Amino acid sequence: MREHIDQDNKHDNLTDGIISFIWNLSDRTILIPLFINTGYPESVVQWIKIRESKFRDDKLDAPIHILHNLSRHDDGIKALNCHGALDVIEEIKIEPKICHDPDDITIHIAMIRVLLTAINQIRFDSIKYSNEIINMIIKLSIDSVKNDRSRYNGSHVSEPLTVIVKLFHNDEILHSTFTNNETKATAETLIELLQSYLIKFYPRIDIDDDILENYTCTVILNLFWLVSNHKKYRQIVGNNQALMDIIKQAADDELNFVDKFMPRTMKSIKQSANEILKNINS
Questions:
Q1: Nearest one of 141, 235, 236, 243 to 186, comparing CA atoms
Q2: By CB neighbour count within 10 A (0-12 exposed, 13-18 middle, 19+ buried), where does 7 fall?
Q3: Please, are residues 158 and 215 in contact by the beta-carbon 8 Å criterion?
Q4: Which domain holds residue 15?
Q5: What does the alpha-carbon distance between residue 102 and residue 212 come to, in Å, rounded to a whole number?
Q6: Which position among 33, 149, 216, 280 has the lowest Cβ density within 10 Å, counted as fewest Cβ atoms?
Q7: pLDDT by residue, tens only, the chain of 282 residues
Q8: Which of 11, 18, 14, 73 is nearest to 41 (CA)?
């Protein structure tokens, strides 16, 4: 399939069908290693470079979405960065005003940028991540978590949450998110919804054995851990007794769920829960 798209820069109907098929398959994290091992990261980067001549209008964003899916996996990030994916993403011209629309590709480009950037760089590079963009990522999380399938416009809630967790390693971004008028209300709404999500799904973690739900619980606890690292925000977590009961259960639980696709920079459920309790009790 990849070879057909790679063979030239011309558009044809088969290319449209193939790119849609690859896009759908790449949304399954379990398949990402297969895509990596068969050379897709390099090809996808090239597809983005030639997308305006190679794909029809309704498929123009498909290579970007595929790259986004690949970048949700640590090995995908490594492979994409080897082929200059971040530089290619930075070169995509977008109008700043359209980031008001959560359906627009702008938000996906912003999330890709975060995913492809090392945490150590994010910690010292606040200026790249405006309150406007962060607010849109938070709103995407809210829209997703409100949906029965935890999805909005094709994005599962774990996708924007993973990005938020990575951004919250930057103390300045975290602080700004909870104090800036543009983001404060949406951030507090998100925290409330995530508390409800965790209370609903964590007790079922060893029953449903749903990889995506389990991973989402992991991401949420990582987010709460990062928030609880700051004394002024600990009450956001500590004041919810039902949530604290879940956190205590997770800390004591013999079940130590570790998602093999979980970013290496994240803590496990048990580790996050213990760190939260340590912060709350300090």
A1: 141
A2: exposed
A3: yes
A4: 1-93
A5: 22
A6: 149
A7: 788 888 888 888 899 899 999 999 999 888 999 999 999 999 999 999 999 989 998 999 999 999 999 999 999 999 999 999 999 999 987 655 544 555 578 899 999 999 999 999 999 888 888 888 898 999 999 999 888 888 998 889 999 999 999 999 999 999 999 988 888 888 888 888 899 889 888 887 776 677 888 889 999 999 999 999 999 889 888 888 989 999 999 999 876 565 666 788 899 999 999 999 999 998
A8: 73
Residue 150 structure tokens = 């935890």
The tokens for 261 are 């696709």
Dig out the tokens for 26 from the structure. 């790449």
Domain membership of residue 280 (yes or no) is no
Token pair belonging to 249 = 């259960």
Burial group, residue 127, by CB count within 10 angstroms (0-12, 13-18, 19+) = exposed
In which residue are the tokens 């150590």 written? 120
47 lies in some domain: yes
Q: Under DSSP, is residue 8 helix (H, G, I), strand (E, B) or coil?
A: coil
